[in-house]
Structures are given as structure tokens and as C-alpha cells.
What we know:
7-stranded mixed β-sheet, 7-stranded antiparallel β-sheet
Amino acid sequence: MKVCIAxxxxxxxxxxxxxxxxxxxxGYFEGNGFQVTWTYGHLCTLKAPDEYTPQWKxxxxxxLPMVPPRFGISLIDDDGIKRQFxxxxxxYANAECxxxxxxxxxxxxxxxxxxxxKANVKCPVYRLWISSLTDEAVAEGFRNLMPQDKYQNLYMxxxxxxxxxxxxxxxxxxxxxxxxxxxxxxxxISIGRVQTPTLALIVKxxxxxxxxxxxxxxxxxxxxxxxxxxxxxxxxxxKEDAEELLAKIQDTEFTVTDIQKKQGKEIPPRLYDxxxxxVDCNRKFGYSADETLKLIQxxxxxxVTTYPRVDTTFLSDDIYPKCPGILGGLRGxxxxxxELFGKKLPKSKKxxxxxxxxxxxxxxxxxxxxxxxxxxxxxxxxxxxxRFIAVFYPDCIFSSTTVLGEAAEVPFKATGKIILExxxxxxxxxxxxxxxxxxxxxxxxxxxxxxLPDFVKGESGPxxxxxxxxxxxxxxxxxxxxxxxxxETAGKLCDDEDLRDAMKENGLGRPSTRAxxxxxxxxxxxxxxxxxxxxxxxxxxEVIKTIKQEILKSAELTGQWEKKLRMIERGEYQAGVFYExxxxxxxxxxxxxxxxxxxxxIAYVSEExxxxxxxxxxxxxxx
Length: 623
């Protein structure tokens, strides 16, 4: 009997239906020579410290750092998990071979490998690798099973990540709790490989705002033919300089000196990876990163979208022949897809690029009709579907106009944009231009998109000058959308998509883990939410202030670890070398914390205090 194992019962049900394993038993399906069972996510975990030695049960500075001579795994202490594992173990013992049908990614590989190790599997193991759960994709995947050994590097990367999180999290959390926690409150100071540098980004923004000193400046403008022209000099730091020019142009005529017209184009926005989808869902609907992940995972399990835990916005070439069929299956979008039928779909390098796809391609619809979706799922599906259709539409063609003028030899300019051919923007006709894509615009950029009247070079007439007093503004607090982008680029601001792609390898965490990291910061009461904004609590601020080891809080340095983990996945870096680096780092941190007697205890923030400060600014995220 061939035993297949999936990560969830719902996925196992889909696979069983395709294979003809229609007889249901306790904990598995059977039929047609297959038994299909499942885990519930993780069944196993790395052993707790006291499972290696009883001394490590006590939180004692003398026993730190804890570095097991060899890491082991144990079943999670849960009755349901133990029952399911017993079923899996029995099936494995009698299997002619096992087919690993876990989620096709690093975490999915780790989950199933640990279960097989715990069950002491001896038979051959094969890997199912699919990007959607449609019947066709599952059947094709079973026709192309690979030996599990092909994915050994993927497993080693996942194992290295888990060991790294254990070594740093267990040791640093105990070190900081013992040395700096409030003992009377039994306070745990949680330190994590990704959560701490993420918290550091939020705390850094707190101090940038707190220490910001606004600077006063003035802008000289004039209104001519109901169009606002800005002085080309820009900002005036001294009011008297601006007032001097204002007096000079009063009671003069405004003359148009030049008109420059240029045609430009906007290419369609990229397809979604998980992070960009979470960004858009937070910005448009107020969904948290965790909520979006759960929603797109649900859509994947309902077979209407492809595998969600991806960090690429590209498709592989083999998807191109399938695209007409996918477009044909999109119900409710016929008015848009009709324009694409009857002609060859464009194949842009911005969409199809094998070199930008490793394990999985971008998130797209499967073409299976999207029925029985709730309102929240429908919103997320709509983003994915429109984005997929849009990449096959023509560019948006616009005319950009710059009008130059002067009054009393003081130069001014106004700019505007007119869309000549909407192209892909047809799919976003009901949204303002700034909402159609991820990037938002400043007020100045909004002005540039206004439609200008027909000016004639040399024309002149009366105008109304004005002087505006303004102040520089501090940086904005992070929202989940902007924090996700900062995590993706290790804290470096970047709007350019190509440059952002290059920086992803050094990002904080992986797309599939970032939502959980943000949720952990909430649970630890290191941050709270005020409307959409993320605000550091006093405890969070003091944790970062107390940490002296830069590696623990630097987004850039931690991002370099992520790069090494990806290199392990590709076979370009040795897991053993990474492990030795971790041991050295943990030993250095332990020595420094043990010898620090200067820093005070970290403030304790109760759950009630966080709720009180959050309540008045809280908004319903699923609205």
C-alpha cells in the first residue's frame, strides 16, 4: 500500500478524491492502492531544554548558554496529535512507499520529515510538489513524483532555521529575563532571531518621531486660470525672502513662457507574492498580515488560487500555455477577459521568467470557479484575479504636460497628466489612480496628475499669488503594510520593484512567517495598535534600549542570516558552518549579558494596560 501524507485533513481529502481513495477510516482515507493521511501542521518539535538534561529545566545563569550536543525531536504534548501520530506510525510500518504531500516549501518539508524520523521510516519516500490543489494539478503532480533526496537541501535549510531559532530564542530569552526582567512580575523578556530586529524597526521609528524637530518653511504659489503654479525655487527657509518675491509679483501679469508635452506609459503592476498581497489587503481593507495569510490559505484549499507562501512575483514559462484556460474560468470578470480572447496573449519578461522562480510561482487564480466564498475571501480573490488579468492588458498610455510661466521674472511651473489609453487601468476604473497599485503618492504628486486646460505659449493675464507657511513632518508610524515592506527589505526604504526583488534574499523572516512575527510582538506586549498604526510599548522600547548586541536587533545583520538559509536551500552554503556560527554567536551573547551589571530592569506592561491604551484607537480590521 502506498501511503500519502498531507499537512491538513482538507488537503488529504482533495488528494484522496483524485487518487480514488474514497473509503474513510479513522485518521485516513483508503482505496485504489493508496492510504491518504494527514498531520495537523506540526506534530513534532525540537526537544525542550530539560529533555536534554534536567539541569536546563531551571532558569539559571550558570547553565547558560544551552547548546545540545545533538538536537532531537519530540511529539507535541497534545492528545489529538498523539492519536493521529499513532495512526500515521501504523500506516508507515506497513507501507511499500510513502509520498510526502506536505506543503511544497521549507516548513512543509520540515513538518513531514520530522514525523517520518519519529516513526522510524525505512521504506522509499517520494515527494509531491504542486502549486495548486486543482484535480488536474494533483494528478499531474503524481505523474511527476520525485525521490525525497532531491529536497534534502530544502530540509536542511528548514532544520537550520529551526535550530537557529531554538539556540537564540531559548538562550537569549533566559539570559535577558534573568538579568533584566522584573522578578516580582515573573516577567519573561522574549528575544527572537526575527522578532527582535523587527521590534527594533518599530522602536527606531518611535525615536525618530520623538526626536523630530519640525522646521518651518514657506512656499510661493500663484493661481492662474484656476491652475496652481508653484515657484520653481521650491521651499523658502526664510520668510523675508519669500515675502520679497511675493511683493515683487503682486499686481503684475502672469505669462506662459513654455509648454512641454511628453507621452509616457505605465506597465501593468506585478503579480502578487504573499507580502505584496498582505500589504494591499492591509492598505485597502485593514486586514492584518495574519488575517490575509489565513484568507489566501483558505482560497488555496478551496482550489481557486495557487500556493500562497511565495516570495516571487513571476511565473515560469510552463504556466503560459495554461493562462487562456485560467482566464476562461474566471466567473464575473467576463467583461475584462473577453478583450483577451481571440488573440495571442502577450508574454512579458516582467511576468514570465524562469530565473525568478524557484519552488513556486506568483499567486494567481487557478481558473476553478470561485463559489461559496465569504465576503473577506471574495475581496482577496478579487485582488488576485484582477492582477492576473491586468498583466495581459496593454500599458496605460498618458500624456504628461509641464507648463512654465513667470511673473515679474519669477519662474513658476505646473504639471498635469491626462490618460490617453487606459490599458490595464480599465480593471481599476472605479479606484483612484493611486489605489490601482501599491504605491501611494504625496500631495505634490497628486497635483501632477491634475488635468490642465489648453494653455498657449505667450498668453498672459492676471493671477493671484499666495504665500503658504508650512512645517516639515516627522516620519509616519509603521502600519502592518509598511512594516511588512520594511521586513522584506531589512529596514531599507525601497519603492522600486526590481531593486526590492534583489533585496528579498536579505529580508527579515520569510513571507510565510512575517505575519506570525508581528502577532508575537502583540502577544509579548512589545507593541500595540492605534487604529492602523503600530506603536511600541514602554516594555518594547526598553527591551531594544537594553540590548547591546547589535546582531540581536539589526535588521541588516539578521537579514544576512536569512540569505545564508536560502543559500543552504540551494546547496551553496553548508548547514554545519551555519550551526557553528550560531554557537559562537550565542556564546558571545551569553558572556556579554552575564558580565553586564549596569542596565536597569526592563519595565513591565500588563495586558490590561495595553488594552486600555489601545481601546480608543482600535478599529475593526475586517471592515
